[in-house]
Amino acid sequence: xxxxxxxxxxxxxxxxxxxxxxxxxxxxxxxxxxxxxxxxxxxxxxxxxxxxxxxxxxxxxxxxxxxxxxxxxxxxxxxxxxxxxxxxxxxxxxxxxxxxxxxxxxxxxxxxxxxxxxxxxx
Length: 122
Fold this sequence. Notes:
By secondary structure, the protein is mainly α. The protein has a domain at 38-121. The protein is 70% helix and 0% strand. It contains six helices and no strands. The protein starts with 6 loop residues before the first helix and ends with a helix.
């Protein structure tokens, strides 16, 4: 009997194999110079969370973005995802895998070089 293939498992193993040969991003060290800086940061976070955006707002924004410019929607969506990952600090391996996937989708012909250049610049 033939062995059944699992394309998602194959893709996962392929991306892990390729990620091992690519330059890993440096670890980010977060240090604070003074307690005042921490309190200022906390005030900004409190203000941002009081007027937080819901998932529905994001979906509505994406629908609007698609309706206004359907030809460049994918490019803009990839840009939004990339910038949100960079802002979050990419703490998990799944974040790095998502970033590599975005880079692959943006540059399907030369994806290895695009991924390598991105992580070297970080």
